[in-house]
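Re-run requested by the PI after the first attempt was lost when the workstation crashed. Everything re-entered from the original request form. Ligand of interest: magnesium ion.
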Amino acid sequence: MADESSNDQPQREQHYRRNNYRRYRRPPHKEQSQAPENQATAENVPPEGETPAQSANASQQHPQQNFQRNHVDISVVIPLFNEEQSLHELVDQLKNALVRLGGRYELIFVDDGSTDGSFRVLRDMYFHNRRIKVIRFRRNYGKSAALMVGFQRAQGEFVVTMDADLQDDPAEIPSLINKLKTGYDVVSGWKKKRHDPISKTIPSRFFNFVTGLLTGIKIHDFNCGLKAYRRDVIKNINVYGELHRYIPALAQWQGYRITESIVQHRARKYGKTKFGMGRFFKGFLDLLTVLFTTRYIARPLHLFGVWGIVSAFSGFVIDVYLTVDKFLGKTSLTNRPLFLVGLILIIVGVQFVSIGLLGEMITKGQHVEREYSIREILK
Ligand code: UDP
Ligand code: MG
């Protein structure tokens, strides 16, 4: 079999050096020799419909054009922050899993401002493996931003996301993809048996329970890094801040069909978790953001108005009752603390309705992100 990747290394490396001549340091000789010239691996498989000779010729072109010419079925997007020890193992496991699915895949690593040697490791793997793409952030922007940029670049019909710390098992990818093929748009992993410390699993259960309740989405594990999507979903979803936990919710509200699939979970082998307890507090604030910006952005009066009317109306009923009571001669209003409660409810209610109306005025005057998601257009 023709060995495409044997040509990749000098070409990709030359191209990289041309563009980064000031920053580039040649990798140690030892690491270069790790990629045997004639090894026939998954990344060497020529694209479908091409003879090995054609492939070999094509690889003489510019490496970028060469890469884009490849047909990609599956894109795996992997955000990472300081995970240098896991990366070689991860790529080996991914190759094993993806070869079984036909071998036409791309691995998009998004280095979210790592301060260890992660980027160096990725760059060396990139030189040897044409299926690897690397995007490097200038600083740590967070997992959502990393996923978003990976989604923008993904070319595959199916897009899988996973963590880089080896806690997600790449061997699960085929079953997730098979589930997508039965007609779903999103398959979310469910770490039924988690291998994490109890300080993480218990708050996580609570988080999943509340999120399920407020979003109305019936999945057990919102925070699983391993998920699979049809391409259409990720191209239509805007993930920012720390909204990556709510991608299933954002997808379902747009009308995509989502389901979950039990996946193996493993204990962290190297390094440590990048999220502390703060994640749960921030997570709930993000949930409010998600609810507000997706469900009510175009009609803020529906959110504020309903509660405003409920509050004002109950205050009104209380105070009318007390006033009638006074005229029937029983007690004076100043001795009834409930009268104050009624007044406060009326004031708060009026304020809520006013906030809702102000919100309506603001959204009318501004471009609001479209509320609907189109599945098909027949022209
Ligand atoms: N990660 C990232 N940017 C961050 C924090 C984390 O890209 O700011 C990556 C991290 O490298 C890993 C994944 O997101 O690949 C999940 O992080 P982690 O394993 O720390 O989360 P946990 O498993 O504890 O939920
Ligand atoms: Mg992890």
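Saved to the shared folder this time. The beta strands are 74-80, 105-111, 132-136, 158-161, 186-190, 227-230, 258-262.
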